[in-house]
């Protein structure tokens, strides 16, 4: 039997193989490659990407970390049905991506990272930017990716790709173990030619599995729900990735069980659903936290029970409360003594609902939900006449955007004050919320907005970003201008890190090194964010008031490039509503007098924590 082969470099083979990996919708699973070239990837991967052209598009970014953020946001918006790759040079280009890898790992999101690596032949050692381990000749800077990758491989021979590439795609398409895959590609190997089996490049369809839960676990879940007197559902990000939004809503309606949504799960179902009680935990609504506090059975669906969701495990204060966790991964399903049902959210809910028959739980307190919605209206209302000369709060900024939002609006954010404020106050339409809060990475916002818009051109993306996070990473604004990817940035300027300044005070500390005014500086900076954004080609302007902000957001619709709207805000107020305790350790001694009060409050809440691990 004759084996048909084709002679290609390793890099040419990699991009050709990636270009024919398909999803179930008949689309490329890897939509394209973000690239900043340098020594380590320009000669090998760069040549290969140029040669393949539009069969696997290449995009140029400004920073390796933010390119990867755009790729991750794209995958999140596409519900993990598609992904992107990111390639960098050796050295700082590679390590710039480590933070993004951690972000993807925490959030269980697929991204293929292809950093250039050292020479496999070791002839020019130490090559420029090479990290040398005095005791281990196999280590390079790319070993930093190991703890933040779901799959890691170093390509030291061309034929390594025959196994490494399918293994990487298996991870990217695995609903239980999804996360970043890193292929550290030795730079000399990229350019080496090899005779590849033609069959290796046949198109392949990657199907996203729906693992069925064990029958005994489903029966146990049915029994627990039937016995519960006050059940509540926590809807997590797994609901979105399973496509279980409507199934969860139908389950809640049929069995009269109210649900709350985590940061990752918010927007799975619209806020207007009268069984949607908002968000739980640290940045939760009053009605959601009351619901969870009284529950004797908390049914987690696709959530990993992160500390913000659970109020650092003080939220579930009913002594009879038990946890039932539906999750694809046994690790998440068994957290804190939960009874786990390991399986796909959509199919598992359908099976449990069938087994429950016409069971209905005692009616939830819908009056508390209505009271909460009135509270939200109050704190997000536009300023009245006697506040005309006062800077608006973040809650009032959210209210301004909310009043002009449509069912196609996606509110997005990642770090600072706004993630908590949006979770507790934003009334989302279905698929109208995109929050990176697993890693809460400053600098995700601008690049992430571009990724969302690339994933779905029908959406109006409104990015909430504070001045501190904008200063952290804003350069992909120029990329979005070049690519004509429109979105709207609402930049709230409170002249420092207002969120952490409030946390510092709540922990009994003094104002120090967060706001510019409390930092070791010679001059208070007066940053012209409008001029800065305009210099990168964005349409930039400053809103004079909340009413002006509303008008400018509406006016931004229809533009073919990003719009940046700057508005000055005050830094003192929080959301003004909702909330719960968060475990941030308070010093046992030292500091100002208020430290003792903060420590007493901390100790009291520590006593309420659930101790099962």
TrEMBL record:
Task: Name the CDD domains on file.
Answer: TPP_PYR_POX_like (cd07035)
Q: Which Gene3D superfamilies match?
A: 3.40.50.970, TPP-binding domain
Q: Does the keyword NAD apply?
A: no
Q: What top-level class of enzyme does the UniProt entry assign?
A: hydrolase
Q: What is its EC number?
A: 3.7.1.22
The UniProt GO MF terms for this protein read: 3D-(3,5/4)-trihydroxycyclohexane-1,2-dione hydrolase activity
**Domain named Thiamine pyrophosphate enzyme central: residues:** 218-351
Q: Which residues form the Thiamine pyrophosphate enzyme N-terminal TPP-binding domain?
A: 60-130
UniProt cross-references to Pfam families, sorted A to Z: TPP_enzyme_C, TPP_enzyme_M, TPP_enzyme_N
Thiamine pyrophosphate enzyme TPP-binding domain ranges (all copies)? 416-567
Name the UniProt record assigns to this protein: 3D-(3,5/4)-trihydroxycyclohexane-1,2-dione acylhydrolase (Decyclizing)
Q: Which organism is it from?
A: Agrobacterium cavarae
Q: What is the lineage of its organism?
A: Bacteria, Pseudomonadati, Pseudomonadota, Alphaproteobacteria, Hyphomicrobiales
Gene encoding it? iolD
